[in-house]
Amino acid sequence: MWSWDTQPNSHAQRKFIELIFDRTGKYPNWDPPSEIPVGSYGRIDKTTGNLIPHGSIYSDDFKHYLVDAGINPESGEHLPEECPEESEFTTWSKNVKQIELNVDSQVSVPEIATAAIKGTWQVKKGTTGAVLLMNNPRIKRITSSALGKLAKIQLLQSMHLVTKAFYCPAFSMYLSDTSGSSFSMALLGSAPVVAPVSTVGVTAAMRWWNDTQTGLARHGCSTKHCYTPLYELLHVRHPRNRRSSPSPVRTGEMLWIAPPLPWAPLLEDGTEVPVYIHDDNTDSELE
After folding, report:
1. Residues 6+ away with beta carbon under 8 Å from 129
2. C-alpha distances out from residue 119 to 90, 115, 131, 171, Å
3. Contact 171, 135 (CB under 8 A)
4. Which position has the higher pLDDT, 198 or 279?
5. Do the beta carbons of residue 43 and residue 32 sit within 8 Å?
6. Mean pLDDT score of the chain, rounded to an integer?
7. For residue 228, what are the CA distances in angstroms to 38, 213, 220?
8. CA–CA dist 119, 103 (Å, integer)
9. Average pLDDT in the 153-166 region?
10. For residue 199, what pLDDT band results from cuts at 50, 70 and 90?
């Protein structure tokens, strides 16, 4: 039976990125413990889907670009703002649907009834599905006004810029195979911690549970917002050349757009679509 482990030509990482990007317009980070800092700029490696950073707008070497764009590096106007914490962020690919979780059937997992995040998902048979879950995410982002000025910098006009990143203390990501199975996942809290009254800051540990039998799963838990499972990557819009359809006046964040994935859509098993080259010389020899 086919699986991600038995298919050497499959690109699981790129397939997961492709499926989540299609739903969110943002890039999932296949290795969430490795931070994707806001303000990094570079390009996506089309063989892995990883961001290859070329620099940061917050480095000392970049300060003269900021000044030329009308940004005072000492003012802090270009620094990322931190948005309020959300309770959760959940997303899944279009060929996946969430179905009712039968808590009573999970008698061996009593904590599931009070799980912070829980659910059951069904993948359409013959297709690959992806699910991304985050607990208590915080978004760091570059403000729209700063993006408007950064768009003037010629160096950034040939690069992609990380304009937003999701930080969380717990994440789970799952990439199915094509068997069309259903699966459940939940973020469980441990048993209550018994501690002296004087103890301050005691936090119950969290752990991920799932009943997946196939596919690939990655997850992590911490007491700190140390994971970046998802980030927004934008590049500067290029003006239209058609005189009959002038570009609308854009400012701020509207000067930027999400770049397309740098590879052709993959097949359901994560392999590349075969490219057949027609050889005219061979045909002429057969005539």
Report:
1. 19, 92, 93, 95, 96, 121, 123, 175, 176
2. 10, 10, 11, 14
3. yes
4. 279
5. no
6. 87
7. 10, 26, 11
8. 10
9. 96
10. very low
